[in-house]
Amino acid sequence: MPSFNIVVLPGDGIGPEVAAAGVEALKAIGEVYGHTFNFDEKLIGGIAIDERNDPYPADTDAACLAADAVLLGAVGGPKWDLQPKRPEQGLLAVRKSLGLFANLRPMDVAPSQAFRSPLKEDIVSGADMLIVRELTGGLYFGKQTRTETQATDECLYTVAEVERVARVAFEAARKRRNKVTSVDKANVIETSRLWRETIIKLHKAEYSDVELEHALVDSMAMHLVTRPKSFDVIVTENMFGDILSDLASVLPGSIGLLGSASLGATGKGLYEPIHGSAPDIAGKDLANPIGTLKSVSMLLRFSLNLSKEADALDAAIEAVIAAGQLTKDLGGTLPGSEVTKAIVAQIRAGASVAA
Ligand code: NAD
Ligand code: IPM
Ligand code: MN
After folding, report:
1. Residue-number span of the structural domain to which 112 is assigned
2. Cα–Cα separations (whole angstroms), residue 349 to 20, 153, 290, 325
3. Which is it for strands 151-153 and 128-134: parallel, antiparallel or unpaired?
4. Which of 18, 64, 109, 300 is the most buried (most CB within 10 A)?
């Protein structure tokens, strides 16, 4: 019987609630499809600061490096804001340590669910995009300085860093609708000029079959909400990708719906919803688990090569959404744990139909 080692990093706020949903779904998939998932829960973020005075303890790093895949809830919260040691440092550390330079954030709006969007239905219906966010460079990892009266953040990108994430985007586009939109601020920022030139060269040399366009990040923010259907794969640097993906989460109606996969040069990956620790709803069983469950589906697909199981989980999620069994963020009335139960029941029901 195949067996997989999954490190679970629940973190802070709603992190433990949504991570528990992911573990429940994996357990059900294990039972139904005959796989053993060994779960190893480790500390990260604020709770790790509280318990170990370190947002990313060494034993967490060792476990993540040895695991088949890592599932993360969320980190952060007001308790640790503006402290010298911050929960978010733990998240940056795990991404860097595992070399996870490409963060895949898919977003789609099924026509039957377009009415849940705060935007006009005809604008969002059928939108289907993949944001490929560079994850280990740029402002997040540059040198920082600070005195009483000034602060600096260095933004550094190398050609190699741009090329490797651009390849991920071009390869993904070839399996989708064959279009890449590269987002930068090349009219002002030097790293963006390097970004654009590198992408143009790589496109010409290896991916000229893929349609490529460039967009400036400010007007891209506008286009994302006015004509989202015109985008397929979007590739951009770390900070722009962070901001644009939260913006894109408005299209389907809630940030609680979006999952992500962070991948590097190996098959290993870190899987997490794109949302944060949502301190405003933590501990109330209001958190939408679907973003985490979509992340689990990517974990099955990309790190464990279990595409049938990933398809089954996606179908279970879709069935529960179609039945309107939803949390408050999407206009529903169910606690998050009940949505998870409904999805787990669908996993079991789907498997018995297939058998
Ligand atoms: P957030 O994503 O936590 O919350 C933004 C809004 O979306 C809130 O109103 C929240 O209630 C809602 N929301 C988020 N996830 C939801 C879900 N699953 N179901 C229903 N509603 C949901 O962003 P924020 O408030 O700016 O940040 C809070 C903390 O989270 C900060 O400390 C930040 O650093 C951290 N953060 C962590 C991650 C991560 O761990 N990957 C990501 C983003 C922010
Ligand atoms: C995300 C978060 C993180 C980021 C923070 C918490 C470090 O916003 O995963 O989107 O900016 O990458
Ligand atoms: Mn973010």
Report:
1. 107-256
2. 21, 52, 18, 16
3. unpaired
4. 18
Residue nearest ligand 1's atom 5 by CA: 278
185: tokens are 């601020």
Using CA of residue 238, residue 174, residue 113, residue 340, what is the dihedral sign? Answer: negative
For residues 268 and 355, state if they share a domain.
yes
For residues 337 and 238, membership in a common domain is answered with no
User: Do residues 95 and 118 both lie within one domain?
Assistant: no
- Closest-CA residue, ligand 1 atom 42, reads 276
Q: Note whether 246 and 115 are same-domain residues.
A: yes
- pLDDT, residue 266, reads 86
Per the structure, the count of domains in the chain is 2
Query: Rounded to an integer, what distance in angstroms lies between the CA atom of residue 197 and that of residue 186?
Result: 9
Mean pLDDT by 10 residues, the chain (355 residues): 92 98 98 97 98 98 98 97 94 98 98 97 98 98 97 98 98 98 98 98 98 98 98 98 98 98 92 98 98 98 97 98 97 98 95 66
Could you tell me if 97 and 114 lie in one domain? no
Ligand 2, pocket residues at CB < 6 Å? 76, 88, 91-92, 242, 274, 276
Alpha-helix residue ranges (DSSP H) falling in 34-120: 46-52, 58-66, 87-97
Same domain, residue pair 111 and 48: no
Mark which of 223, 256, 289 sits at the end of a domain. Answer: 256
Q: Which ligand is nearest to the CA of 133?
A: 2
To test ligand 2's pocket by mutation, which of 75, 88, 236, 271 has the most ligand atoms within 8 angstroms of CB?
Answer: 88
Backbone φ and ψ for 309, nearest 5 degrees, come out as -70, -40
By most ligand atoms within 8 Å of CB, the mutation choice from 275, 281, 326 for ligand 1 is 275
The bound ligand whose nearest atom lies closest to the alpha carbon of 246 is: 3
Which residues are tagged catalytic? 140, 185, 218, 242, 246
pLDDT at 1: 66
User: Do 195 and 130 sit in the same domain of this protein?
Assistant: yes
